[in-house]
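# step 3/5: fold
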Amino acid sequence: MEDQVLPLAVGLSVGLLLLLLCLVVYYLWRRRRRRRRKSQYEELLTTVPSVPACSAPVILVSQGSWATPREIPFTLPPRFITQNQCDLKNEEDKEVEEIKMEARRDILAHRGSLSVSRWYPVGTVLAGLYSVPPLNEVVAPPPGMATRLCFSVEYRHSREQLMVSLLRLGNLPPRFHGNVTLVELRLLPDDRRPRQAKARGTGPDPEFNDCFVFQVSGVCVSQSTLSVCVLSVEQDGKRHAVGRVLFPLEGELGQAGRVLWRDLETEDDTQCSELGDLQVSLSYSPTLQRLSVAVLRARGLQLLTDAGVCVQVSLQIHTQVVKIKRSCVVKGENNPYFSHRMTFKLRSQHLDEACLRFELLQPSDVRSEPPALLGVLVLGPFMYARGPQLQHWMDMVNTPQEPVKLWHGLGRAT
């Protein structure tokens, strides 16, 4: 039995030694293989050239003011090519590269200065093309005492949108400097809902910097008029009309986006027409369906005699005269004060079909002769009126139960 155990133990010992020897050999082989891979990776890294130090930053912005555009030099980092790739290039490839570089120089020569860096000739950046000019240089109010509005108008035919940019006011009267300035924009004759903008500051030149979009077709835009009404609001909410601008869009959309200055039309600055002017106040009550008319005064009338003058007001729906009323006769004045109020019954659905016709009459000394007609004024919707007469009617409709007072020039009867 002992003779069998001894060979068995010797065999197991030899087997264990052989197994241990194999494990040591395998470990040494793996370690040597890892070292070889690491050495190959380090050799690959050493073949990449080192990055040279740039003498200037990648983008160098000049320290000059944006108000005076200057060229801003800038450079691009060099292209790195391995030595092996450089050796593979032949002379034909170099000639092709030189031809491409010359063509690129010719193209960039039209953009301004070249050869900003020794490495690659790239066009310089002109600061004037990318900088935003200061606001004072773009929309500075022109000299003068008239209150002026600065805005721009642009029509986008692809979207059928009228873009109105409201910028600022200039030379606001001193009595309005401490109040809040509001602006109401409408597109006549169809737009009844006003767009409103509030100034971001007070003083003589309040700023707005607001943009409004009106959806209008290309056929109707040339027949429309942009109405801008400027209001001054006190702390207690009382409003004062500063003035308005009526800007016909016909023929004014050729130079889109240009800054426009327009004087505000005020009551004090309005010049008398040839036949004289008439001041009228209108208000409408939807609940009572009542149209209130106040004939306040007239100025600059061309009286024929000293018999006096009166105002005849007629309410007309389409071609039918519904009601006629007449004020009292004021004698011996070219600028008479009437202060005569009258009311008319008018339904809300007839606001787009009705109009008011004012006739200044001078009675004749002879009773059998009809009175002389001095001038005519028509206030109503787009069917009957244009310009300030249409704007007055629209303001009355859009501000119910609030009197709207305005001067109008008299015209000749047709």
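# step 4/5: annotate
Residues 51-69, 109-124, 127-138 have pLDDT under 50 and may be disordered.
# step 5/5: archive (pending)
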